[in-house]
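Researcher: Let's walk through a ligand-bound prediction step by step. First, I give you the protein sequence. Second, the SMILES string for S-adenosylmethionine. Third, you return the three-dimensional complex as structure tokens. Ready?
Model: Ready.
Researcher: Here are steps one and two:
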Amino acid sequence: MQADTSSIQHSARQVAIRVIENVLLEQGSLSTQLIRHQEDVSNEHIPLLKELCFGVCRHYPSLNSIALHLLAHPFEEKDTDLYAALLLGLYQLTYMNTPDHAAVNETVEACRLLKKDWATKLMNAVLRRYQREADEIVETLEAQPSIEFNMPKWLVKRFNKHWPEHFEQIIEASNTHPPMCIRVNEQRVSRETYKKSLMEQGIKSEAGEFSDSALYLEKAVRIGELPHFEDGFVSIQDEAAQLSAHILSPKAGEKLLDACAAPGGKTGHLLEKSDSIHLTAVELEPWRMEKIESNLERLGYSAHLICADAGDINNWWDGQPFDKILLDVPCSATGVIRRNPDIKINRKPADIDELVVIQREILNQVWTTLKPGGFMLYATCSLMPEENEQQIQHFLEHQADAKEVPLNSLAPEFALEWGIPVSHGRQLFPTLQGHDGFYYCLLHKS
Ligand SMILES: C[S@@+](CC[C@H](N)C(=O)[O-])C[C@H]1O[C@@H](n2cnc3c(N)ncnc32)[C@H](O)[C@@H]1O
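Model: Step three, the predicted complex:
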């Protein structure tokens, strides 16, 4: 019995090495790698696989500094699998309850399974040294931003430069496990009634402060434990993301565009607000488009789905203008690092400049599909002013028919008590027990 469990867990570690190796080699994001590889472990070991992979990514800046300090020479790129194994070993020694000898032995064994027996001695020596000298090593390195803040240096610098007053909050909230927030489909059930059904299942929850459809669960649960999840009563969605549909406040008969739509979280919410709108959802990636389809199917709604580059309007737009547009552009996701901790590994400063150009192009093109008198909500889950207020500043300077309007212009009863006002729009920072980092600006076309 004992032997069985450890052999299956061992395979979770093997798979974790593959996932982390691929993330380090920039073969795809952590979430796509996990989707691809989680079938390689038995269902009961998926939580261990996730804990290992999320844990290594979440603590990557400090684990990486420690690993580089311990190694006389960094591993070559062809041995990234060994480096992934080392990071996993260090993670288990530092943050998990795995007995030290098991963490060391399994990492050494992993070298054999990777058919790199030559590395067993080295791995053993490095991990044993860390076991003995962890405190001294961390003390030697503690002045490095990677250890002090557990963030890449460039991100520490940017957060500090742009948001000195919110710096500590951003770092702390970005380094924690995010709370589990759900959105209640008010067309099916009220938030209060659903809260009671959760309570009957022993799941405690608290109402969100800003979105009247948000419930924070005291502890994360599996989706299958949420009553009527498959019947579309609730969706998993952060509270800040839920503000989009409240701000746009769709009304029956209106023609709406959700321009960068997958996985369809906000698409579904717009339809929950009014299922008599005419909603078009555009998404670039075919595999992500499938997620919108399954999300809408579960919720029982439909929309006109188009797989295309939203910025290439000649390719997808029929010339009929939209009353309202949600433009949730691809961004650096620096407001949701706690949900996508591989950002700490792979996001680079140059990505921000590239994203700004992509966002600008989509924004300019999609603007032309908006009706005069219509509204566009520009949204990102970024904390970078270049992608947010500066992007909008540039847009307003070049679009004579665009004007910024207050975020509650379409829903005057909606109190703007979240985030902080910035030169254009409002910036939300991630909070410890609450919402993610986000940015919103509402534009009106004259
Ligand atoms: C921030 S996510 C959108 C999240 C979504 N609104 C939701 O709430 O579930 C951005 C999406 O835009 C897509 N995307 C990126 N570039 C695009 C483009 N040029 N045209 C359309 N979609 C694009 C990405 O594949 C990604 O699914």
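Researcher: And what stands out?
Model: Confidence is low (pLDDT under 50) at residues 1-9. DSSP finds 18 helices and 13 strands in the chain.
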